[in-house]
Design a protein that fits this description.
812 residues; alpha/beta; seven-stranded parallel beta sheet; six-stranded parallel beta sheet; globular
């Protein structure tokens, strides 16, 4: 036999064969390039060269040829284990010596074992090691035969020893550089544990992306797409400057306009700063999207950054900002939006036909590609990249390296994810040379929690004076002992309409919004209702209609949930906000007198008696913290610079807020009596000690993280949502296309459209729709798409089911 007799893949379209040796060496090269970004090319390359070593077995070669010969009735997918051999070889030959060598072999072997699944627990909560069980399992994988063929046809043992030694040297330097200034042994141990966990994730990301990319390139007959060029940044910067000059010429000639231009120029000047974590504390309406982009485009040129990624909490912001950037930069093909869960992925069915399998692959490829210069995604997608454990998410992790991350409305980091978010940013800065910009008018003081980040600077100069100059509203707390009823609130709005032409009312629950909307139903005032029950295209249309009414100075009232208060460029004469966190109050105020049309306008804070906040602890506690500050200011008007929304006031608010939720910041898992933070990063746990006392004596480990257990409990939002395609506008045509099984010629275009006509619903809403027979279910192999029937979607409310679950516009 020769190396040509062993194949890795057979192309479906023409039966062409990819040699196994070629696949391993090409994946090795791709993985080395990915590892080079953090100075560890041989560490990641090791995973690439060994990942499919098991395909040298006779059993696998029979399996793959049988699958190609009988596509309609193939052998069961995954029936031959080809992913254990490479990790087992690495551990048996090189898992010895000092801790650095242990860390290298364990992190790489875990990635190899699981490159078609999820990372294994090194030690689980019962004191066992699934990792060691995989390594030492008495399973027939033809290991001796596979090893002999690998050493004969791929690399000999001398080469492997030299290669592994290079990887060890790289890893030693990696740790030494990050432990230079550490003063205590306990601190060093803590840092090492975090670094090894993230290192394992990075190796896993490198291997998965290199493997999938090489397989995809072979499937497409060598067709490769390359989006990136440093020349792009210069071209985009020139186009942005032209647009900013145009905006400046057409803007109102007032102090607000001059301040916006000044702040934008300051961002450009600060682009020379080194890689780090910076805050951009622009007041609402300050133009932070284009100002942060101005920083990023120049910073990318000066520091050779690979991509710019905007990360936002709400789809309303993505929908608006992504299109604005496309238009400004004239960059339709260079801007990716990734924020939809309209397609649900599950484990492949055993009866998957070849055609269904190919369809599923195309759909997944359309939504998983992040190799593009400018990306808009959500906080959910960002956090899932690190902590969901799913290969399609963690595959993107390495693309965050050597990039610029712009976090819009950073105050919206979910409370239980604060520590995990901070550690991810620390890793990206210290290991991946990634610059992060934390943008908001209401900085959440992430540097003051226990597991914190170090802020390297604020991009705005003279921030207190800027906040004062941007003061366009007067906040008026109108809190009653027993709260405001819907009826009383209706009367107050009617009174305010005598002096205000238009009013925005923001309440905390969908039920409260709907009740107030119905209070106006028979009146003569025009009412606009906004809700996350509406699909993005529907909300866009509503916002477009409102902007036209504002332009014509028509009298109307908009009643909305908090989806309108962050990132939506719209300006009302008066805003009424139901009591919530100080950051939400500030964001709501940003929808009033946004462009300084007049000197000052009123923003009222009321406490709604009929809102049920028992299941909304962050809103409830946030409102209490805000109330304390409002009372303090009433007693002493000189506090916090005399302004409720000052920088000092906001810092005080978040310190108190995080203190109230201190037990939640590390992502607690009550059923296990631990936290995700401890599962991933803490060394001194009872289950680790149990392992070290027991079977660990035979197979000692340097990495003790419980990866799979941590990942299996991770959800960015407590109440998981499901995307549903709805029959609004073009959504009807998309549903018809699915139900009629009309061929989809362009999956990327289909998904892009589907995002605009899909709604995320909570579990109880989803179950109600199913129970009432209001869902259409379409299967694409292992993928499922849900669509709503006509009767389930309302022009006024969108998908409207009763419930007090927290409104959130996160997209999974």
């Amino acid at each position: 036999m020769s190396s040509v007799d062993f194949i890795a893949h057979i192309r479906a379209s023409d039966g062409a064969e990819q040699r196994l040796v070629d696949h391993l060496k090409e994946v090795q090269a791709l993985a080395e390039d990915i590892g080079q970004k953090i100075g560890l090319p041989h560490v990641t390359g090791l995973a690439g060269m060994l990942h499919d070593m098991g395909k040298f077995s006779h059993a696998f070669q029979e399996y793959i040829r049988e699958a190609a010969a009988n596509p309609e009735n193939p052998p069961k997918r995954g029936s031959v284990d080809h992913s254990t051999a490479g990790g087992k070889f690495l551990l048996e030959h090189f898992h010895q010596g000092d801790p650095i060598t242990f860390i290298l072999t364990e992190s790489v072997a875990n990635a190899i074992f699981t490159h078609h699944g999820q990372l294994l627990d090194m030690v689980d909560v019962e004191g066992q090691s699934p990792f060691v069980k995989r390594w030492t399992a008495d399973k027939d994988i033809s290991f001796l035969q596979v090893k002999q063929r690998f050493l004969q046809y791929m690399y000999d043992l001398d080469y492997m020893q030299r290669y592994v030694q290079k990887a060890i040297t790289e890893l030693r330097i990696y740790f030494e550089n990050r432990l230079k200034n550490v003063k205590t042994a306990s601190e060093a141990t803590s840092i090492m544990q975090k670094l090894t966990s993230y290192l394992t994730m990075y190796v896993f990301s490198a291997l998965i992306d290199a493997d999938r990319r090489n397989s995809c390139d072979f499937e497409k007959s060598g067709e490769k797409l390359h989006y990136y060029s440093q020349d792009l940044w210069s071209t985009f910067e020139q186009r942005l400057n032209n647009e900013l000059a145009k905006k400046q010429r057409s803007a109102l000639p007032n102090a607000i306009t001059r301040l916006r231009e000044q702040m934008s120029r300051t961002c450009l000047e600060k682009a020379t700063l080194s890689t780090g974590i910076y805050t951009l504390s622009m007041p609402t309406g300050g133009g932070k999207t284009l100002a942060s982009l101005r920083f990023a485009l120049r910073h990318a040129q000066l520091h050779q950054k690979k991509r710019i990624i905007f990360i936002v909490p709400f789809t309303t912001i993505i929908e608006q900002n992504a299109q604005e950037i496309r238009d400004v930069l004239q960059a339709e093909d260079f801007v990716l939006e990734h924020h939809s869960n309209v397609i649900e992925e599950s484990e492949p069915r055993e009866d998957l036909s070849f055609e269904e399998y190919q369809t599923a692959r195309k759909l997944n490829a359309a939504k998983n590609d992040w190799d593009i210069p400018i990306i808009f995604t959500t906080m959910v997608q960002f956090l899932e990249t690190f902590y969901s454990g799913r290969s399609r998410s963690i595959r993107r992790l390495h693309n965050l390296a050597n990039s610029i991350l712009i976090f819009d409305e950073i105050q919206a980091v979910p409370i239980h994810c604060v520590s995990l978010f901070n550690e991810a940013l620390n890793f990206l800065k210290n290991t991946c040379q990634t610059t992060s910009i934390l943008c908001t008018a209401t900085q959440p003081a992430l540097q003051y929690v226990r597991h914190n980040i170090k802020i390297d600077g604020e991009l705005m100069e003279n921030l207190p004076s800027i906040v004062e100059a941007f003061q366009r509203t007067t906040l008026k707390p109108l809190l009653k002992d027993k709260g405001w009823s819907t009826e009383a609130l209706y009367g107050f709005i009617q009174e305010r309409l005598k002096t205000a032409n238009n009013i925005l009312v923001i309440l905390n629950t969908k039920r409260a919004v709907k009740d107030l909307f119905e209070e106006f139903h028979n009146g003569d005032i025009e009412i606009v209702h906004l809700s996350t029950g509406m699909c993005p295209a529907h909300r866009k249309q509503k916002l477009k209609e409102m902007r036209e009414k504002l332009r014509k100075q028509e009298k109307f009232v908009c009643i909305s949930t908090q989806l309108i208060e962050a990132g939506v460029d719209i300006s009302f004469d008066c805003v009424i906000r139901s009591l919530s966190g100080l950051d939400s109050i500030a964001q709501a105020a940003g929808r009033c007198n946004r462009h300084g049309e007049v000197a000052l306008r009123d923003v009222y804070v009321i406490n709604h008696a009929e809102e049920s906040l028992s299941k909304l602890p962050t809103i409830k506690k946030g409102g209490e913290c805000a109330n304390y500050i409002m009372k303090d200011l009433q007693h002493d008007p000189t506090l916090f610079g005399g302004y409720l929304l000052s920088t000092a006031s906001m810092t005080n608010y978040f310190k108190n807020f995080y203190q109230l939720f201190e037990s939640k910041l590390n992502y607690p898992i009550p059923v296990l009596q631990t936290t995700i933070y401890d599962l991933l990063f803490r060394v001194d746990t009872d289950w680790n000690k149990d392992y070290l006392k027991g079977q660990g004596r035979q197979n000692p480990l340097a990495i003790l993280a419980s990866f799979r257990t941590a990942f299996s409990h991770f959800e960015v939002i407590d109440a998981k949502t499901q995307g549903i395609l709805v029959p609004y506008g073009e959504g009807e045509e998309l549903i018809t296309q699915l139900t009629s099984r009309e061929p989809i010629t362009d999956y990327s275009l289909f998904l892009k459209k589907a995002q605009q006509y899909s709604v995320n619903v909570f579990k109880h809403e989803f179950e109600a729709l199913k129970q009432n027979n209001q869902l259409i279910v379409v299967h694409f192999g292992s993928l499922t798409i849900y669509a709503a029937k006509d009767a389930a979607y309302d022009e006024q409310y969108g998908i409207s089911t009763q419930g007090e679950a927290q409104l959130t516009d996160f997209i999974v």
